[in-house]
User: What shape does this take?
Amino acid sequence: MQMLFQADVGHQTGDQVRATFWMAGDPVELEVRGFAEDLFRVAQERQEEIDALIASHSTHWRVDRMPAVDRNLLRMAVAELIGFKSTPFPVVINEALEIGRRYCAPESSNFLNGVLDSIARSLIGK
Assistant: This one.
């Protein structure tokens, strides 16, 4: 999510984010880094599709008007829902909600849960 946030708020390309993101901070296991890179790539490559899904499942909210953390957390979770079919939908939603509880406003949890649940239900069987 931090990579998506950096690209979104910092108006950086995916290549710019990749060039600087891993330089700062603690070392990360290669498997974790690989998954984060894959998730970031899917979210970037399919951002139009992801944003359209988010918009169609979030009544009265434009994606660009959502708080940046909420917007990018939704993008990350939806990228995992559509790009990593082996991860069960409830696991993706629960992990997103845990991140949201830590980094989003308290009132965001219900919003995030509702949008992600609605998107997941629409993807079942696809």
